[in-house]
User: Fold this.
Amino acid sequence: MKADPKDQRRLLDVQAIDTALAQLAHRRRTLPEHAELEALARELSALEDERVRAQVAVDDLDRDIARLERDVEQVRVRKDRDQARLTGGSGPARELEALQHELASLNRRQSELEDAELELMEQRETAQGVLDGIEQRLVAVRERRAETEQRRDRSLAEIARDEEFRAGSRQPLVADLPGDLVALYDKIREASGGLGAALVAGGRCGGCRLELYGADRARIKAADPDEVVRCEECRRIMVRTAESGL
Assistant:
């Protein structure tokens, strides 16, 4: 293939834009905010699991406290009824004595229930403190996530603007170049990790960085200026200038 040497040199301008676009794409994929958000998502998930367990613990204690309160109320009602009968003083002496024993038993039962309820209420206070602490941590992590998302979005918007500018600069350059030259360049670039054309400098291929020796160097040196020369090693287009050292 033949192409005007000026067109071959302009391929380097296109390559510079394509390299910058590839770097921008890499930057988009590897923004530190992506990793931060993944870590925050895992942290939030773990905290949500902790919150659920802590809420279940509080709910279980609430249920147990409510049950004890009902039991205490039942004892109180029964005590009030027995006390009224005892105060009334009606009935056989044996029955009144039995009421006194039952009142004593009910007093002990009420005391036991109230002690148990007090212990559960203390446990609930502790459990609520754990739950409140987890919810505070959740709020803090969600705030960090929101801040990280804002940073990510700002970076992505900046990358998008830069890509738009560079893509806009590429289009007129490519439009002025021969179609077959651009097609060859694009094909090589796609197959060679993003580099389709490279400058020969100091007798070295700018693509693979290998020094040109012997017959390969003589072949390139002898090629007409409008000949599109490719490296034998990396197969990229080698753009020659007066500073190529051939």
User: Anything to note?
Assistant: Residues 5-25+178-239 form one domain. Strands lie at 197-201, 204-205, 229-230, 237-239. Residues 33 and 148 are 6 Å apart (CA to CA). The chain is about 75% helix and 5% strand.
